[in-house]
Write a structure and sequence with these properties.
The protein is mainly α and 438 residues long. It is built from 18 helices and five strands. The protein has a domain of 172 residues: Orthogonal Bundle (Preprotein translocase SecY subunit), CATH 1.10.3370.10.
Length: 438
């Protein structure tokens, strides 16, 4: 306990780190407050008590804002959808490929395009949300005026959430967009835990609850292992010179290739796409095809939903890994600095070798990621309540673990730069004792 208190004291003794943590907390508080401010013209007492199916899943990512008909009712999800579209365009359309390669100016242009597309997507989703979820008896003003004004407010709310995410990334700790999603998810955990405990009323139920918590612990450990797993590629550097009988410049380092290089983004992207079939099918719910899509993609326990979700995660894992890890750039960097992988020629062969290794470790990583993502369906079948089963894997757990680890690593780096002992008991995290090639 004393060591923990000392670590907290060290964290807040670093002015920049303290400022970033306080900024992050302030932005998150603003985000949570916006989840309880109801849209003008809505009678909250007439709203559904809880969202079901796909709406319930979306509400879990937004921390109740969707169910509350709040000004942040759509949260950051339209921005995620826009980011998916833009990143797909960077693969399919040469103009967007050129923008991606233009450095900072190209990234700024892509960011502007993403923002404009976010506005368009939010306007479309807001109309669907107001039509499909908010009942007519809950609207206390003119329906047409309500839809127009609320669509504008919801769009403004999403853009403000996007701004908050960018400010957290720039002025706070962690990835802002992922942080907003995580805080919405984690806000539901206490109520879910209490509900699960109280629902196991008798003595046998308490034992079952303990077993559920043990299973949850091992699932969390498996997700942490997946997030931290690294394949290290050894790299040698030629000796630069000899002076005074000692060789200088010769080093042995490594290239850390993560099993899950894409982090939580494939889950977020896949989940964003999983919302679309049911939303687009709402106007056709009276037809057999429309009803099939709504029924199938509104229930995360259906086989079609889970198979589709798993396939999307695997595809997005490969896609996001391909755009974030470039073997050719790594090989060129090694060649410029006189580094080489033992047994592999510098240049093209090094690039092909790295690409081969990356493919081999990404495949099992993506499959395991997909399995963890669909675990909530199996937890529900095993008797866990639907509310609590979301934390047995799936998007909720993966996002929470990924974002928390990323945030802790950033805090750890600040402590080490100031020569403080890190958050880990040993003062070391994986890979710190050896040099790494970035």
């Amino acid at each position: 306990m004393k060591k923990f208190i000392t670590t907290i004291r060290n964290i807040f003794s670093i002015e920049e780190l303290r400022t970033r943590i306080l900024n992050t907390l302030g932005f998150l508080i603003i985000f949570r407050l916006g989840s309880f401010i109801v849209l003008p013209g809505v009678n909250p007492d007439q709203l559904p008590e809880s969202a079901d199916g796909i709406f319930g899943l979306l509400d879990s990512f937004l921390g109740g804002a969707f169910n509350n008909a709040a000004i942040f009712g759509l949260g950051i999800m339209p921005y995620i959808s826009a980011s998916i579209v833009v990143q797909l365009l960077t693969i399919a359309i040469p103009h967007f490929q050129r923008l991606q390669k233009e450095g900072e100016s190209g990234r700024k242009r892509l960011t502007q395009i993403t923002r404009v597309l976010t506005i368009i997507i939010t306007l479309g989703q807001s109309i669907g949300y107001l039509t499909a979820y908010i009942p007519g008896e809950a609207v206390v003003v003119d329906p047409l005026f309500f839809k127009i004004s609320s669509a504008i407010i919801l769009t403004s709310g999403t853009m403000f959430c996007m701004w908050l995410g960018e400010r957290i990334t720039d002025k706070g700790i962690g990835n802002g967009i992922s942080m907003l999603i995580m805080i919405g998810i984690i806000s539901r955990f206490p109520n879910s835990l209490i509900f699960e405990f109280t629902s196991k009323g008798d003595q046998g139920g308490i034992i079952l609850f303990v077993l559920e918590m043990v299973a949850l612990f091992f699932v969390v450990m498996a997700v942490v292992a997946l997030t931290k797993a690294v394949r290290r590629i050894p790299v040698n550097y030629a000796k630069a010179h000899v002076s005074g009988g000692r060789a200088y410049g010769g080093q042995r380092q490594y290239i850390p290739l993560k099993v899950n290089s894409s982090g939580v983004m494939p889950i977020i992207f896949a989940q964003a796409l999983m919302f679309l079939p049911a939303l687009f099918a709402q106007p056709f719910q009276d037809t057999d095809l429309g009803n099939y899509f709504i029924t199938t993609f509104s229930n995360y326990q259906t086989p079609v939903y889970n198979i589709t979700f798993a396939i999307l995660i695997i595809l997005f894992t490969f896609f996001y890994t391909a755009i974030t890890v470039n073997p050719t750039e790594i090989a060129d960097g090694l060649k410029r600095n006189g580094g080489f992988i033992p047994g592999v020629k510098p240049g093209k062969e090094t690039s092909e070798y790295l690409d081969s290794v990356l493919t081999k470790i990404t495949l099992p990583g993506s499959i395991f990621l997909a399995i963890v993502a669909i675990l909530p369906a199996f937890a529900t079948l095993a008797g866990v309540s639907p509310m609590f089963s979301q934390f047995y894997g799936g998007t909720s757990l993966l996002i929470m673990v990924g974002v928390i680890l990323d945030t802790l690593q950033q805090i750890e780096s600040y402590l080490l730069m100031r020569h403080y002992e890190g958050l880990m008991k040993s003062g070391k995290v994986k890979g710190r004792s050896e040099a790494a090639v970035v």
